[in-house]
Amino acid sequence: VANIAGGKQACSSAEVIPVNLHCIIGSSYSQLIQVVPISSLTSEIEMILKVLFFSYLLTICVGSKYSKEANEKDPSVTETGNVAPFRMRRINVLWEKAQRILAAPKLKALAKELSVQDKEELAFKRLKSQGADKDGSKEATVVASLSRILKKYGLGDVTDPEISHTVPRKRVFKDKKLHKIWEKAQKSLLKEEELKVLEEEFEHVQDKIDQYELLHSNILETGDDSEIFGNDSTGKQLKKIDSIRSHHNQLKKEYRYLENLSESLSNHSVFSEPEVLELWKTALNSQFSHADLVSFKVELQHFEHRLRKVRDLKEMLKHYPADEKIDGNIKTDDKDHIEERITRNSKTIEKIRFDISSKLTSHMEL
User: Fold this and answer.
1) Where is the Alpha-2-macroglobulin receptor-associated protein domain (predicted)?
2) Cys staple from 19: which of 9, 183, 341, 361, with CB 3.0 to 4.6 Å?
């Protein structure tokens, strides 16, 4: 038997038959008998060869099953060994956690929401791999949606390095003072659309700051401070100095303007009248400049005031006594006056509505 392992077969007689072990094991049992006649083998050696042969067959059958699975993790199975119903890892982690703490009715509702979330996160992952979503809008939407689900079902927080959990995304301006004003604006109750409009204005001011710093740097490169700011400064240098001062004063105005704009947008940012609120949302998505947007918001406030006034007058007229008499005479002056005010304000409202619609249309076509 020892010689078999070494590549040769020892027979009961003095004759030695050279046999390759791999050849023996890889052959069928009938071929094995042909290579080594039974008459030359003892029953014990024959039994050993049978065991080797069937062991090899078992290895072939089972080996193909485990060779790949032993090195690759099945994506359809979670870390705990359960079947993974979703594509994204953290959604499956969240689902397993929910199964431990939620009742069946809530699990059913959660499964539907997670199915949608899973598709959204998968789509985001593909976008990110393609270098898209540079402004982070898709990321913020996906993370906000997941945060809402976590809060709704009391599931805490699930971390995943694939998607940042910073909502809203962190925006950093190079200018420290500008960034400080921006952080203050972010802490206000501004809506996403309003914050986006405000961010664009901050970017414009940052561009102006960059231009100012570039101009200042170019002047400093012409010589030392005594040459630039001294009494012997040339006319050209004086013009540059005036330009710097002008830019500096303009930047100070821009800082104040951004602070006022932030406060203006944050105060009374939500209109109560549905019609006015829809007009404001449309304006935020149109091509308004920051100055036009602030002015337009004031117009909407006046428009809303008129709408409320007419509604109050109509309510007053509705409850006005039809046959109220004073000294036996029917009192009609007050009622007529109310109706006149309703008519006058209604005409004003129609005019304002037309002007606002025209202004929105013109900015949407830009």
Assistant:
1) 63-160
2) 9
Alpha-carbon distance of 127 to 129, in angstroms, equals 5
The pair of three-digit structure tokens given for residue 219, joined into one six-digit string: 């002047």
- Cα angle: 327, vertex 329, 335; to 5 degrees: 115
Cα 301 to chain centroid, rounded: 32
Query: In which residue are the tokens 């005010």 written?
Result: 341
The SS3 of residue 77 is strand
pLDDT reading at 73 higher than 50:
no
The pTM assigned to this predicted structure is 0.33
**Are 120 and 140 within 8 A, CB to CB?**
no
Domains and CATH numbers, the chain: 89-165 (1.20.81.10), 176-221+238-267 (no CATH), 274-363 (1.20.81.10)
* Residue written as token pair 């209604």: 346
**What are the backbone dihedrals phi and psi of residue 268, each rounded to the nearest 5 degrees, phi first?**
55, 40
Helix %, strand %, coil % of the chain (to 5): 70, 5, 30
Three-state secondary structure call for residue 17: strand
Angstrom distance (rounded) from CA 297 to CA 271: 10
| 65 or 234, greater pLDDT | 234
What CA–CA distances, in Å, run from 116 to 76, 80, 91, 339? 18, 23, 11, 54
Assess whether pLDDT exceeds 70 at residue 100: yes
Instruction: Tell me if 87 sits within 8 A of 122, measured CB to CB.
Output: yes
The most confident of the ranges 21-30, 90-99, 128-137 is 90-99
b/e per residue, 275-314, with b = 16+ CB within 10 A?
ebeebbeebbebebebeebeebbebbeebbebbeebeebe
